[in-house]
Write a structure and sequence with these properties.
The chain is built from six helices and five strands. The chain is an alpha+beta fold. It folds into two domains: about 70 residues, no CATH class; about 70 residues, no CATH class. Helix 1 crosses helix 2, helix 2 packs across helix 4 and helix 3 packs across helix 4. It is elongated. The model has no long low-confidence stretch (mean pLDDT about 95).
Length: about 150
């Protein structure tokens, strides 16, 4: 592994430092880690400690998660369909609410009821226990039919 290899990986994946929430070093570490390179080997390559590489990787992953959250927030703001799902709702009731809201807005959602329940459940994580919604949720559907789920307060 050399600097040219890392630069090529970043170029192939379209890393643009001026448009990214990641620093170049964070992008390098993530690119190498995603290719199975051990932190100790990355540390040797970069001339730093494994602990520093671990810190860089953790910061990069935090930044990626914050970027995802920001996109989800922006999509929820602009989604033509927004369904508030209150605490205590049965997960089995959510698809009908979403379908009804989509019909009213003229938006097509390309998911069956079981698929939609799985999407909501997976995205909500521990906000759903069994079939019960334990934390209020906002289910947004974009004009393209993509479903986005956020915890609501």
């Amino acid at each position: 592994m050399d600097e040219g290899d890392v630069t090529e990986i970043l170029e192939q994946t379209g890393f643009a430092p001026d448009e990214s929430v990641l620093t170049r070093r964070q992008a390098e570490v993530l690119a190498l880690r995603e290719r199975g390179v051990r932190q100790s080997d990355i540390a040797a390559f970069l001339g730093t400690s494994r602990a520093n590489v671990s810190s860089i990787e953790a910061s990069a992953r935090d930044n990626v998660e914050k970027a995802r959250e920001t996109v989800a927030f922006a999509e929820a703001l602009t989604a033509p369909v927004r369904v508030e799902v209150p605490e205590g709702t049965d997960l089995y009731d959510v698809p009908k609410e979403v379908y009804d809201a989509c019909d009213a807005a003229g938006v097509k959602v390309n998911h069956t009821a079981p698929d939609l329940m799985k999407i909501v459940s997976d995205a909500a994580g521990d906000a759903i226990r069994g079939r019960e919604v334990r934390v209020p949720l906002l289910v947004g559907v974009t004009s393209e039919g993509a479903v986005r789920v956020r915890r609501s307060t």
